[in-house]
Write a structure and sequence with these properties.
21% helix; binds copper (II) ion; six-stranded antiparallel beta sheet; 27 strands; elongated; 502 residues; Immunoglobulin-like; alpha+beta
Length: 502
């Protein structure tokens, strides 16, 4: 296998242990709970059932009475949720509240965050994907202690059985005869056999539970991508070829549009990360999507496809693509108007000013302090016109900005917005879902009609955008930040080094 083959093999391996976002399991959200702007972080426990940690930060100074949190499973047929938990204030920080949430089933949850204070009560919904991504190992000291206790119990039980058969019914002080001793030994042997059978049964039960848990570990739907040349350019075909997509209808609900598109497909050129595209393939049928390819350089590409299910479950599918040749025609006319791509050279300045295609600039506004894993990342950017004035940003697919972040080896890929890592479509499903929404496709249809009104939100006159996020792993990252300005989609590109927490 070549080096590239090995690397791609590693990439696929990584994808198998991924969460809903690749390698970035925690949920970051910024929004308003009524009159209270909040930033919510939900830390994924990695196991289901599991205890997720949630923190709610109040972003504006207000008198707060209490903060309530409640995870609600997407399926209205499941049991009614319990009363909400009261998040406790974190000592030493008057604006931070925290709580632990039990996520009992795998799937989409909406976490209701309610803030009560002097401006009344306000609620917001934060979609959280509960997925099992790891299997907790039995710790060696605990295993050894349990083994010793088990051995003690078994030996104790056999001793009691033996003594009962040998000496019960004897006068105090009398010696058991040979017959009693023999019967006692037989009883001990039979008891040992029964215990051994019980232990074997216990082992089989344990292994069965473990196997069931392993088979329930989350894997994104399997997908494959191919490219074919046509008269108007290269056409990319992205197929969900996972057998469970077609056969396990109970597990997967239909797809719904997010920002007006059923699929957001990102292409990152492997190796140099020097080419990037954000495309919106159209469905050919329920498993296949097609998109005209922009003029990208030849090479191997990592593909990340963001999709959202009607249940509110958002996931990123992963595939690779070998692009053998660039199309001759410079710009195929049939691509989606929201498609955007970028290709450039080598490494970016970590604290750079990114030139945009129309002559304006995007500046990463960050201090000199290093970026550390799991700490709030300073993702604030300023867009200025060629004259240096703040650029008025138009909504791009209903958002002020989109940021795509990947680690150089592909172990992390996340797509976020000023509202955080959440899928807006997932949030919408929770807002409009009614108890009677048990028919597949009904909610999706309503949402599709609602999405017509997209586009009014997300205009930013100040040219300033920020994203709530914390990097999940140390390493070298590349960021593509996309905004819309003067009816054009502009891509600013930055690099970041993230260091491990000490
Ligand atoms: Cu986006």
């Amino acid at each position: 296998m070549t080096g590239r083959g090995l690397r791609l093999g590693a990439l696929v391996g990584i994808a198998l242990v991924a969460s809903a976002h690749v390698g970035s399991p925690d949920t970051y959200f910024e929004g308003a709970a009524g009159a209270y702007p909040v930033r919510v972080i939900v830390r994924n426990p990695g196991v289901v059932p599991g205890l997720a940690q949630i923190t709610v930060r109040l972003l504006a100074p207000r008198a707060i009475r209490r903060v309530l949190v409640l995870p609600v499973f997407w399926d209205p047929r499941t049991a009614a949720p319990p009363p909400p938990d009261v998040a406790v204030p974190v000592s030493g920080d008057s604006t931070l509240y925290s709580a632990a949430l039990w996520l009992m089933s795998a799937g989409a949850y909406s976490v209701r965050v309610t803030v009560e204070g002097d401006a009344g009560s306000g609620t917001t919904l934060v979609p959280v994907m509960a997925v099992a991504t790891r299997r907790l190992a039995l710790e060696k000291p605990l295993g050894a202690a349990l083994l010793a206790l088990g051995a003690f119990l078994c030996v104790g039980a056999l001793t009691i059985v033996g003594a009962a058969v040998r000496e019960s019914g004897l006068e105090p002080g009398a010696e058991p005869d040979r017959r009693r001793r023999l019967r006692s030994r037989i009883a001990i042997s039979v008891g040992a056999l029964v215990l051994a059978l019980a232990l074997l049964g216990g082992r089989a039960w344990w292994n069965a539970v473990d196997a069931a848990y392993r088979s329930g570990l989350y894997q994104p739907l399997h997908a494959a991508a191919t490219v074919r040349a046509t008269a108007t350019g290269n056409v990319l075909r992205f197929a969900i070829d996972d057998s469970s997509w077609a056969t396990r209808q109970r597990q997967w609900t239909p797809l719904i549009p997010d920002h007006g598109h059923l699929m957001h497909l990102f292409l990152v050129r492997d190796g140099g990360l020097d080419a990037f595209a954000h495309l919106h393939p159209l469905p050919v049928d329920s498993t296949t999507f097609e998109s005209t390819l922009p003029p990208l350089p030849v090479g191997t590409y990592r593909l990340y496809a963001d999709i959202v299910h009607e249940s509110g479950f958002a996931q990123t599918l992963v595939a690779t693509l070998d692009l053998p040749s660039s199309p001759v025609s410079p710009l195929p006319a049939s691509g989606d108007a929201d498609d955007a791509w970028w290709s450039g050279d080598g490494r970016r300045e970590p604290r750079g000013v990114a030139p945009l295609a129309d002559g304006s600039t995007m500046t990463w506004a960050r201090a000199d302090t290093p970026i550390v894993v799991d700490r709030a990342a300073p993702l604030r950017f300023l867009v200025r016109t060629p004259g240096g004035k703040p650029a008025a940003l138009e909504p791009y697919m209903g958002m002020a900005a989109h940021a795509m972040i990947t680690r150089d080896d592909g172990a992390v890929f996340v797509h976020l917005h000023p509202a955080g890592t959440i899928s807006v479509a997932a949030q919408e499903t929770f807002i409009v879902r009614q108890p009677g929404d048990t028919v597949r496709g009904e909610l999706g249809k309503r949402l599709g009609a609602m999405e017509m009104g997209i586009g009014e939100r997300g205009a930013v006159a100040s040219g300033e955008i920020s994203f709530p996020y914390a990097f999940p792993q140390p390493g070298h990252y590349r960021l593509w930040v996309q905004v819309r300005h003067n009816h054009r989609i502009e891509t600013g590109v930055f690099d970041a080094d993230v260091s491990a927490a000490r």
